[in-house]
Design brief:
Length: 153
Amino acid sequence: MNLKEALLMHCKMFVNKRMQTVEEIIHSHQKSLQSETKSSAGDKHETGRAMIQLEMEKASQQLAGISEMNQILSKIDISISEISETKLARLGSVIYTAKANYFLSISAGKIVMENTNYFAISVSSPIGKLLLGKCENDEFLFDGESVKIQKIV
């Protein structure tokens, strides 16, 4: 398995783990909602139900975000990077700079592969927007510092 495949797999596992957690939360809230119906009475009962409903809505929004991440990951084609001579940073690119190494995909945080740190970042994040479309040896300003792209894979 090459580096890009490993990074992509890590991102997919990250999304699957988040989905599993949110689904467990929703299931737990559904159980709570059913037990609220059976036990309590009065204002306390209504407040409890309203709080659970709010938590369910929040979990549903998280599920929508997870679904969006899955869509983004499905668009990554890790096989086409070596084709063009001018390597442009795009979805699925691994970008090496003196400051850090980035995998343009989803916001999944720091990933350590073979004792090297990579940051899985979204193309809509501030640094992702700056990297998108750049070439090797391009420079950009981030947090007031000039950063040079050393290599794009």
